[in-house]
Amino acid sequence: MAVEERDPHSGYLTTGHEWNGIKELNTPVPRVVFVFLALTFAFSLVYWLLMPSFPVGTTYLKGLLGVDQRTAVTEELRRASASRAAWARRIETADYATIRADPNLMGLVRETGRPLFGDNCAVCHGTDAKGGPGFPNLTSGSWLWGGKPEDVARTLQVGINAAHPDTRASQMLAFGRDGMLSREDVDAVAAYVQSLSDRSVSSGPDAASAAAGAKVFASKCVACHGPAAKGSTSIGAPDLTDAFWIYGGDRSSIRASIWGGRQGHMPSWEARLTDLDRKILTLYVLDLGARAP
Ligand code: HEC
Ligand code: HEC
């Protein structure tokens, strides 16, 4: 039996163990820690009884309270879809003008349109819908196929050069590659097209070329782009006089469009998105354009 010994400095008893003159103090774990442990243990026991806990074969202990996250989620989803159904019906049945004049409905269009656009359209048109080379800016107000809600809805439904039987067909011919125009004529008409939006071309070194290009344009291009080069929304031929370009308005991009032709491809969304989703996207895209600076 060790003799009880008290450490004169701290006042604790020692355990009687000693290593090289260093004595071990007897400092037990404080009572409050034991109380805390006991409380947490009691709590876990109660929690285990009340709430779903251990797996048992193919089932699990369900707990006395009958709490089930799955029914809670189902209930929440049901409530969300009931409230969605109410406003979805209003968007489905109201005409475009009514919806666009209703700030509440437009709020819902913006809220649901943003993720729809992000999931389906942003890969090509960009998250801000401003497009990029080959993919048109949808906020510019300059529309290839028309900017009325019905036009945009139709574009989404059938696509452009898409697999849909009624697809919009966008065919810019390969005038250079297919030998319809000589190299000089392609260069000339490219200069002319650029001069339509960039006045400096007509007074610069390419003035003569642009003037020659005007004749080529009159014979080869007006059928689709129109005599004033303003384009045609019935065949998706772009206005060549504005600042809006799908493929670029610098000389080499314009030349490449004329030399090799362009056939932009936009999928049909009829089979992939519901009528409601397409209507929301139509309104969303038009709204982006209306609010673009
Ligand atoms: C695979 C790429 C791609 C995806 C995805 C895509 N688009 Fe397009 N979209 C295009 C291209 C390319 C054009 C231009 C086609 C052309 O050259 O005429 C276009 C054209 C359009 C037009 C016609 C623009 C005009 O000026 O008339 C609208 C509207 C449009 N897209 C909306 C959408 C919406 C909304 C979505 C999402 C549901 C979407 N696009 C998804 C590639 C895409
Ligand atoms: C058969 C109709 C048709 C004819 C003829 C035609 N174009 Fe086009 N052009 C189009 C269409 C449609 C597009 C849009 C292609 C696309 O969106 O992919 C286009 C696009 C272009 C573009 C690209 C515009 C941009 O925004 O990037 C240029 C430049 C152009 N055409 C110039 C010409 C010139 C010059 C001629 C005459 C030599 C000509 N086109 C003849 C239908 C035509």
TrEMBL record:
It is found in: Cell inner membrane. One of its GO terms (biological process) is proton transmembrane transport. Keywords: Cell inner membrane, Cell membrane, Electron transport, Heme, Hydrogen ion transport, Ion transport, Iron, Membrane, Metal-binding, Oxidoreductase, Repeat, Respiratory chain, Transmembrane, Transmembrane helix, Transport. It comes from the Bacteria. GO terms for molecular function: electron transfer activity; heme binding; metal ion binding; oxidoreductase activity. Heme c 2 binds at M172, C221, C224, H225. GO terms for cellular component: plasma membrane. The chain crosses the membrane at residues 32-50. Its cofactor is heme c. Component of the cbb3-type cytochrome c oxidase. NCBIfam families: ccoP. C-type cytochrome. Part of the cbb3-type cytochrome c oxidase complex. Belongs to the CcoP / FixP family. This is Cbb3-type cytochrome c oxidase subunit. It comes from Hansschlegelia zhihuaiae. The lineage of its organism: Bacteria, Pseudomonadati, Pseudomonadota, Alphaproteobacteria, Hyphomicrobiales. The gene is ccoP.
